[in-house]
Known about the structure:
The chain is of the alpha/beta class. The protein has 24 helices and 17 strands.
Amino acid sequence: MGTMLYSRGVFINRCFDELSLSSPDLIRQIHREYVKAGAEILETNTFGANAPRLAAFGLSEKLRDINRAAVRLAREAAQGAAFVAGAVGPLGVRIQPLGRVSLSEARAAFREQIEALAGAGVDLLIFETFSNLEELREAVMAARDVAGEELAQVTIDDSGNLPAGGADAETFTRLMDAWPVEAIGVNCSVGPKATLETIERMIPLTSKAVSAMPNAGLPQRVEGRNIYLCSPEYMAQYARRLLWAGAKIVGGCCGTTPDHIRLIRSETRSLQPEQKKLTVTVEEPEAKAKALTPKAMAEKSQLGAKLAAGKFVAFVEILPPRGVDAAAEIAGARLCAAHGIDCINVPDGPRASARMSAQAACQLIQREAGIETINHFCCRDRNILGIQSELIGAHSVGVRNLLCITGDPPRMGTYPEATAVFDVDAIGLVNIVHNLNHGLDMGGHPMGSQTALLIGVGANPGALNLDEEIRRFESKVEAGAEYAITQPVFDLRLLEAFLRRVEKFRIPVMCGIWPLTSFRNAEFMVNELRVPVPEEYMARLRRADSAEKAREEGVGIAREMAARVRNMVEGVQLSAPFGRYQMALDVADALGER
């Protein structure tokens, strides 16, 4: 709020909180911009609306009016699309023993503001930007028996410690975990990097939900104005990492504009779609009677028959063309078929790019190259009506193998302003396919016929939050997944650990194998895709003194991995970097007789 007001010419010597009375249209409009960007919680314009801070402007007698007006404006802007949180900041005075204000006086001051916010009907309270734990505790205790849900946040320095007193993350997390609040977290002060590092230290030490609302970097003085230089794209990348780390509430503090929230929202929707999990629930007796027995795996496709028979399979990934000419892709598929590859895996808009539809590419490859395909099907671009229609269509045109994925957010691609749908995630998508295979639409109503789609899902043995990855994988299997394809694996220990964890709900697993093309390609895997690559392999690629030798080394590493996983999994997924299909086939040769 302060950033937006400042950008619109409101000088910092004004009382921003009072603007809820004198400039209500301005405050309401700013709230609306954040709602339009996708914010799910609006904080009231009341960070400094407590008696000591208002007294500095001669406005302490308007405390109740200011807080009530702020809640009303946020509620009018939200229009039911977002929760309204009463924002409560520090008192702006020194608390004993460093100042003259006693703890009881501090608690009374907080209670006065909290009663006004609660009386105006906020959904929750957010205590934010506290550097003094004693002061924050008084604020929290002042809310007891007055307000409902509470989120308590501290501000930190670059090392993750409190500026006042220097308490480290481990210390303040354990203390806050014992307080009567629903969530704890970090906001303001530093940029996303230090916030992520601190959140990673907090997560193992608390049973409460954890929030992260960093500044958009540290302010820089540009032409007399404080400018926050972290781009929306940069903040959104860290929002994804914060969610992976286990944060349940993400957002931003100073410098966070609606553009930042728009991209952060896109990231959260890709990881935690809004749609509730779809399940096969058929209540009407007539509908139950019409639910059909699904086809056995072996009857769904050639791939299904091979997996049911225990045959080791090999896939090669071929990207759809960017235009209408698929001649190169079809030629690559023919080459793969001639070398005994079982399926061509066709991504659906990989890394949020605009290409020929995966289903159309699958049809062309099956018809022209005579090899079965796997249709990547992602949730990013389709609502649940379009999903059901396309799935029925895929069955009808003979594209029977699916890989159900959530999909990359548009921010990652060449059209970052494109709208992401994400009505469901991969788990919800598997539920929809499972319904269709029973002859039921997504609402559980009989269709009179059924699909016979083989359901595949993704898995990531190298996930930063492996517990969450295992939980989601189990949910995918429970929803009806029949096989899985992993992200590229370079560290065999990660694959072994993953397979041990999923043993109780094991389905056929195809290990992703990627022939690295250079040391730079390996760095991209590690730093951008977060795929661990052992230092041994990095060193081998670093020593390659030409592009050709680097590719040969990459193929050699991939062949070693393929041979080592041969007896651990039910198949491999071979990537063909930059359309070099022969590299994938050279790796396949290491598998021997299949």
